[in-house]
């Protein structure tokens, strides 16, 4: 009887253990010990000794500490960007990573990770060089350029000669993955390179038919003209026979006839010259030539900020680096609220009061952007009387205490403030000023988790000060309709 009970207990224990073994997936690790493990790679930004950056690179932040590669790279290989795409059979993700070698100042490389069903792990299939060398200018994304839903891998950036580059890879159906991808275009020019997207039919959107191939256009200086702003447009079209993008047409685009000495001064490459030239407010100009006051860009090189205003929303980006180009500068910027949201801004000189701007979004982020920033922008000018009327009147700092729903405010004569609530202390800087007879208070928190600036309209009523959150825009002061904050002065 005892043997029967012991046997029953043993069988029960073995059965439960087997169920746990199968249910938790431990059997996969037992039979496939080489199963892939995702490695989190620390991203380090390479320094450029010959960079024409407007800022000191010593304060330049890392790229993105959250980038994951399917398998670790070699010790001397530094990851710059990563993009994932669905595999051909839809069973697993493919991954492409752009990297550079720490001991090499040459080109950046693209590597490809493929999921092997036989070993149930990722394998590194190949490495290919690109035309770009400047790590801080690199963007990596995939797009259906040909119209057959076979997404191309596109690497853009700049090289050591400050030329714009674009390298495109495409998978050839039917070939083994070790050799399936090949370059179908590699361009570099002292100007700009753009993908000319064309509209595609509803049948393409529904997966019924192919779409029209996108062309690629490059814009460079016209060597036959004495006007520095005259350009040559070269169009490249995809040739199905050769499987390559080939030059199909060349046309000349006349630039503005402006004083050439001033142009050479602005485009001389002297640090800070072009940055100071674009300082201020620029309005978007539509292709029809009308000015859109609801969309503008504000460049503040001294404050290291770029403000995008469109669709009644304001976005503030930190101006990180600017690299000289033949027609202007190429700026790398980072959103102050979403650190992984980057924008690369290619700015070219059209005239002494207009710019041509192209904005490249960081496409790794799943964010829908409705505003198109590409196009011409004209400098905003105001009359002397209007400028005097709108000029902020800065007031002197104060030394006072206030009670509020946020806690106890202390305004220091040094321009700093503290907010104390339940033992927690928040700090920052403040400034009082007036615009068009509106009393305003601007707070700039010191912690990295808060917004970079908050502006409030101040109104005095019944011995208290009421703060209402506002936003400053081209149409004036706009109320954000947030709950007001009441400040009650503490008398010592």
The chain-level structural class is mainly beta
Number of domains: 4
Q: Sketch the major β-sheet.
A: 8 strands, antiparallel, barrel
Shape designation:
globular
Q: In DSSP terms, counting alpha (H) and pi (I) runs of 4 or more, how many helices? A: 6
Residue share in helix: 10-25%
Instruction: Write down the Rg.
Output: 29 Å
Total strands: 32
Which stretches are low in confidence, meaning pLDDT under 50 for 5 or more residues running? 27-65, 365-370, 382-388
Distance between the termini: 88 Å
Question: What does this 3D model show about the protein?
Answer:
The protein has 492 residues and is mostly beta strands. The chain has 4 domains: 1-31; 39-253, no CATH class; 263-381; 390-490. Helix content is 10%, strand content 47%. The chain contains 6 helices and 32 strands. The protein has an 8-stranded antiparallel β-barrel. An 8-stranded antiparallel beta barrel has the order 24-25-26-27-28-29-30-32. The longest helix is centred in the N-terminal third of the chain and has 22 residues, at 2-23. The protein is globular, with a radius of gyration of 29 Å. Residues 27-65, 365-370 and 382-388 have low confidence and may be disordered.
């Amino acid at each position: 009887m005892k043997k029967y009970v012991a046997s029953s207990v043993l069988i029960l224990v073995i059965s439960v253990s087997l169920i746990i073994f199968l249910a938790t997936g431990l059997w996969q690790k037992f039979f496939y010990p080489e199963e892939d493990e995702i490695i989190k790679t620390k991203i380090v930004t390479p320094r450029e000794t010959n960079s024409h950056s407007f800022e000191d690179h010593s304060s330049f932040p890392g790229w993105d500490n959250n980038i994951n590669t399917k398998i670790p790279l070699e010790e001397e290989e530094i990851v710059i960007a990563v993009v994932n795409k669905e595999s051909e059979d839809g069973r697993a993700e493919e991954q492409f990573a752009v990297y550079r070698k720490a001991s090499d100042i040459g080109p950046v490389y693209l590597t490809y990770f493929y999921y092997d069903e036989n070993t149930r792990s990722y394998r590194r299939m190949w490495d290919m060089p690109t035309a770009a060398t400047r790590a801080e200018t690199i963007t990596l994304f995939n797009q259906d350029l040909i119209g057959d839903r076979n997404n191309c891998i596109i690497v853009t950036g700049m090289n050591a000669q400050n030329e714009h580059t674009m390298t495109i890879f495409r998978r050839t159906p039917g070939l083994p993955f070790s050799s399936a991808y090949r370059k179908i275009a590699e361009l570099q020019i002292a100007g700009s390179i753009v993908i000319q997207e064309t509209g595609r039919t509803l049948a393409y959107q529904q997966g019924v038919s192919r779409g029209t191939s996108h062309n690629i256009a490059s814009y460079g200086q016209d060597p036959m003209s004495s006007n520095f702003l005259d350009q040559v447009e070269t169009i490249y079209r995809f040739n199905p026979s050769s499987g390559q993008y080939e030059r199909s047409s060349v046309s000349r685009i006349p630039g503005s006839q402006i004083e050439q000495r001033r142009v050479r001064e602005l485009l001389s490459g002297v640090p800070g010259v072009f940055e100071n030239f674009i300082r201020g407010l620029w309005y978007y100009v539509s292709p029809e030539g009308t000015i859109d006051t609801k969309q503008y860009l504000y460049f503040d090189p001294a404050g290291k900020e770029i403000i995008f205003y469109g669709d009644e929303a304001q976005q503030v980006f930190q101006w990180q680096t600017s690299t000289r180009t033949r027609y202007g500068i190429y700026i790398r910027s980072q959103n102050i609220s979403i650190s992984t949201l980057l924008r690369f801004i290619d700015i070219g000189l059209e005239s002494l009061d207009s710019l041509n701007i192209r904005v490249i979004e960081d496409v790794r982020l799943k964010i829908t952007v409705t505003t198109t920033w590409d196009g011409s922008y004209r400098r905003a000018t105001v009359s002397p009387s209007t400028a005097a009327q709108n000029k902020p009147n800065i007031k002197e700092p104060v030394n006072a205490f206030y009670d509020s729903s946020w806690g106890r405010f202390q305004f220091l004569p040094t321009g700093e403030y503290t907010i104390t609530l339940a033992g927690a202390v928040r700090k920052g800087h403040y400034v009082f000023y007036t615009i068009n007879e509106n009393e305003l208070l601007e707070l700039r928190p010191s912690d990295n988790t808060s917004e970079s600036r908050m502006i409030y309209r101040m109104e005095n009523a019944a011995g208290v000060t009421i703060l209402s959150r506002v936003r400053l825009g081209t149409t004036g002061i706009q109320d954000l309709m947030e709950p007001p904050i009441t400040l009650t002065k503490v008398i010592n």
